[in-house]
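Sorry, I am new here, but would you mind making up a protein's amino acid sequence and the tokens describing how it folds?
***
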Amino acid sequence: MNKLIYLDNAATTFPKPASVMKKMIEIYSRIGVSPGRGSYDLAAEADELVAKTRRKVADFFGSPDPDRVIFTGNATDALNIALQGLLRPGDHAVSTRLEHNSVLRPLYHLHMKGIIEYDLVPFDGKGFVDPGDVIAAIRPNTKLVVVTHASNVLGTVQPVREIARLSAGYGIPLLVDAAQSAGVVPIDMQSWQIAGLAFTGHKSMLAPTGIGGLVLNREIEGIEPSRFGGTGVDSRSLVHTEAFPYRLEAGTLNLMSIIGLSESIEFLEQMGIESIHAKEMALLNKLRDGLSLLDGIELYCTENFPDHVGLLTANIRGMDPNDAGAILDGDFGIAVRVGLHCAPLVHESLGTSPYGSIRFSIGPFNTSDEIDHVLKAMAEIARYGNR
């Protein structure tokens, strides 16, 4: 193979659709001014494009109110805004051991500051959280449940619809980290009773880096802003506006990436996220089946794939995953992610700490021939590693 085989799509999808990039640059070149910051026609046109993208995002995730679409830099940014804006002194939160550090670190920060307490629910041997365990962790002072939709280490898609239904019965909102699921797994916030959803554009949404969002339902009124500044509205007041979406946005928006997000949503809707997911899962099944036949390969939570996104983790017995990743890159031209994947508690539970694992994550532009090449490479490395 003379070109890079890119299997780190769970970090950032690459390449992006050429049509999305072309249209993004074309539109930005024409109206790349500050949206909502001027009375001239071009600023109004940019502002309308932002508003149109809010509506697209709301529709994409089944949210009824585009004014509750808050643009952020990424999912981590969105989760920080939500967690620090919703949790108050004395509150308790429930989350899971599957979480990315974008959830774990804000919760730990708030706990170490003496503001909140929290509990983390374990996952089972197949990589799933039991909704009953989440509900069992609820206390009288529990104010929020936050759960990843798809694990960035195991690829398992969690039963957030059932968790949301049960937590809503206790009057407790569910915040979903959809960083790995947005763009490949259909989500309907309203019918699923999801209170808040954090997403990023640069993964399966196929948008550029630097854009994400927090989507809230109308019941969440009391979220406090953690950043203050210019919004283009209520400029005479020194008090940051309470109106959504500007309440949680400060400063000039990333217009170029918002345009890219708008175009990527159109691309996803034309292709069909179910079709994209089916293609990725077909390749993942081929990869899993091929790796399972190799001596010395350890796979984690890959017995069945009914609720899964296109990634899996593995190790070569007796070899540091960092060494395996370097060989895959340097000798075979295969880009993968190695280490703890910013989800240390998953690896503690799997017994793969402190070195972690090799993560293969498939995107919409990977091919069957590329998977064949990966399997040949892994077979050769495993033979070397097991000598």
